[in-house]
Design brief:
It is a single chain. The relative contact order is 0.23. This protein is 18% helix and 42% strand. The chain starts with a helix and ends with a strand. About 10% of the residues have low confidence. The strands form 2 sheets. It has a 6-stranded mixed beta sheet, with no helix packed on it. With 152 residues, the chain is of the alpha+beta class. The protein has 2 helices and 10 strands. The radius of gyration is 17 Å and the shape is globular.
């Protein structure tokens, strides 16, 4: 009977873990998608890939020590930044058993009025987090399959 109880508790823990990773929330204001960034700002979209690896992990996106938001499985984040060189940090948080989060850092030199698209995923062979810049067509296609973030 105790084995059955343990199995049930493990199943419940798995369901709760998967349900927590489903929502995308954004701590910064979400820009109006109908209005592009002003000339002194650039816009960034970030979403997770469709891969299975790392699916249960929440991805926290940080810029200049400020949390932009947390990516669930099927959402995207969108924010505006001043033009110039910027470094973005993405932390793939796992369970307590995993230990510290898996991190990727990417930088870009944003131009005024420009929009940038990034796909975040974990490499299955190396278990490292990767941020891949997408061209406009691929970026728009990825975001079209994702939900807008919930404001916090």
């Amino acid at each position: 009977m105790t084995s059955l109880l343990r199995l049930a508790l493990l199943g419940l823990a798995a369901v709760l873990t998967l349900s927590c990773a489903a929502t995308t929330t954004q701590d910064r204001p979400v820009p109006d998608p109908e209005v592009g960034p002003s000339g002194d700002m650039c816009r960034i979209y970030a979403a997770r890939s469709t891969q299975m690896m790392g699916r249960v992990r929440t991805v926290e996106v940080i810029v200049n020590d400020q949390i932009i938001g947390r990516l669930g499985e099927s959402g995207y984040l969108c924010w505006d930044l001043p033009v110039g060189r910027t470094v973005v940090q993405a932390l793939f948080h796992g369970s307590v058993i995993d230990g510290k989060p898996v991190e990727t850092v990417f930088g870009f030199d944003g131009e005024g009025g420009a929009t940038y698209y990034y796909e975040l995923h974990m490499d299955a062979s190396t278990r490292k987090a990767i941020a891949r810049a997408l061209d406009e067509d691929a970026g728009k296609a990825l975001m079209a399959d994702r939900k807008a973030p919930e404001a916090r």
